[in-house]
Amino acid sequence: VIQAPIEFGPLSESTLNVLLETTFSRSKKIILVDENTQVNCLESLLTHFEVLSEAEVIVIPAGEVNKTIDVATQVCLAFKDYEVGRNDVLINLGGGMVTDMGGFIASIYNRGISCIHVPTTLLGMVDAAIGGKTGVDLEGAKNLIGTFYQPDAIYIDGAFLITLPDEEWLNGYAEMLKHALIADFSLWNKLQGKKELKKEISIELIRECSNIKQQIVLEDPMEKGKRKFLNFGHTVGHAIESVLLDNEHAISHGHAVALGMIAESYVSMKLGLLSMENYYTVETHLKKCYNLLSLTNEEVEEALAFARLDKKNSLNKINVVLLKNIGQVEGLFEIDESLFMECLTKITN
Ligand SMILES: NC(=O)c1ccc[n+]([C@@H]2O[C@H](COP(=O)([O-])OP(=O)(O)OC[C@H]3O[C@@H](n4cnc5c(N)ncnc54)[C@H](O)[C@@H]3O)[C@@H](O)[C@H]2O)c1
Q1: Which end of the chain has fewer CB atoms < 10 Å from its terminal CB, N or C?
Q2: How far is the CA of 280 from the centre of ligand 1 (A)?
């Protein structure tokens, strides 16, 4: 599988114009946005690219709750009305919700049309837009329907981040820290001491994080081995995120992953892989940026039940990616449920 090329820097100076005026000169152009990227990002795209003045713009409602097969169907119906054909191109302008959804639609509509990702969230830039996984949720089950499908190109322009809310910065920052923890000690150091993410996360740091993801998926595009390491922090993270989902204490994905990384680093230490000193370094930094949780006993049980659901697990075991060092993964391990319960105590107060 060939990975899509990624370009960093101002969109107006990128090769997007060339791509639109050569490969797609005769194609119909459709732009997919959500309500927020329509307001905050669309205008700058349209003003820079004359060729997009006649593009059809499709707006979908924002938020994970709308990353559904029903919304995807609505978009496909709009494509049908616009008579979108196999040679046309979809530009996905938004966060991971839009690039996941748009990538999915591009992969199935008319047996596949071209698409271009222009991520507008930090998480999209360092993670979601890269690697060719697309998908929508089915009755709350995340990404249950999806494909592997590469866009023609990915353009990463930090200028879109100016309007990004603080909470979304923290979401993306968690995935940046994850990339550093699994692959790059010096990047971990560079990511420390950031008081105001908005001002201190440079396009250079974004590029370093994106490159880590790109490199891992290049080596393992279909997630048969190494790509699974990107799930570091996600076994625990996903479990607590799901348990609190419809609750007044619901937490964001990034927050859940950050706490998941504390828990899974703790497991790494308990099993003699990560040194105690390194564990405390990880814990201290993450606790500084992300609040601990209060979970009822019932919620702890539910988190365990959720982690057990993973079909890859053998009986009474839970799969977790463990660290050997800051910047180095040891591998994917099966841990006992008792250790899973124990590590939850590290992220609750
Ligand atoms: N495909 C993958 O490999 C992969 C990897 C990680 C995450 N994901 C998916 O990505 C999604 C999360 O991505 P996300 O965090 O970008 O969420 P998102 O796309 O929902 O964006 C978060 C919020 O920010 C708003 N927004 C986007 N850009 C903005 C901007 N420039 N200014 C102001 N507001 C803006 C959005 O409208 C939304 O309200 C999840 O659905 C997750 O499953 C996919």
Answers
A1: C
A2: 30
Three-state SS for the chain is CCCCCEEECCHHHCCHHHHHHCCCCCCCEEEEEEHHHHHHCHHHHHHHCHHHCCCEEEEECCCHHHCEHHHHHHHHHHHHHCCCCCCCEEEEEECHHHHHHHHHHHHHHHHCCEEEEEECCHHHHHHHCCCCECCEEECCEEEEECCECCCCEEEECHHHHHHCCHHHHHHHHHHHHHHHHHHCHHHHHHCCCCCCHHHHCCHHHHHHHHHHHHHHHHHCCCCCCHHHHHHCCHHHHHHHHHHCCCCCCCCCHHHHHHHHHHHHHHHHHHCCCCCHHHHHHHHHHHHHHCCCECCCHHHHHHHHHHHHCCCCCCCCEEEEEEEEECCEEEEEEEEEHHHHHHHHHHHEC
Question: Is-above-0.85 flag for pTM?
Answer: yes
- pLDDT at position 195, please? 87
Of the candidates 22, 101, 93, the one whose C-alpha atom is nearest the C-alpha of residue 55 is 93
Indicate if 227 belongs to the active site: yes
Find the 34 Cα to ligand 1 centroid distance in Å: 10
What distance in angstroms lies between residue 146's CA and the mean position of ligand 1's atoms? 17
Q: Is 223 a catalytic residue?
A: yes
Residues 324/183, Cβ–Cβ less than 8 Å: no
Question: Is 29 an annotated catalytic residue?
Answer: no
Q: Which of 168, 175, 264, 299 is catalytic?
A: 175
pLDDT at 312: 62
* Tens-digit pLDDT profile for residues 95-136: 999 999 999 999 999 999 999 999 999 999 999 999 999 999
Q: Which atom of ligand 1 is nearest to the CA of 40?
A: 32
The per-residue pLDDT for range 164-212, each reduced to its tens digit, is: 999 999 999 999 999 999 999 999 999 998 989 999 999 999 999 999 9
Q: What is the pLDDT of residues 313-327, one digit of tens each?
A: 666 789 999 999 999
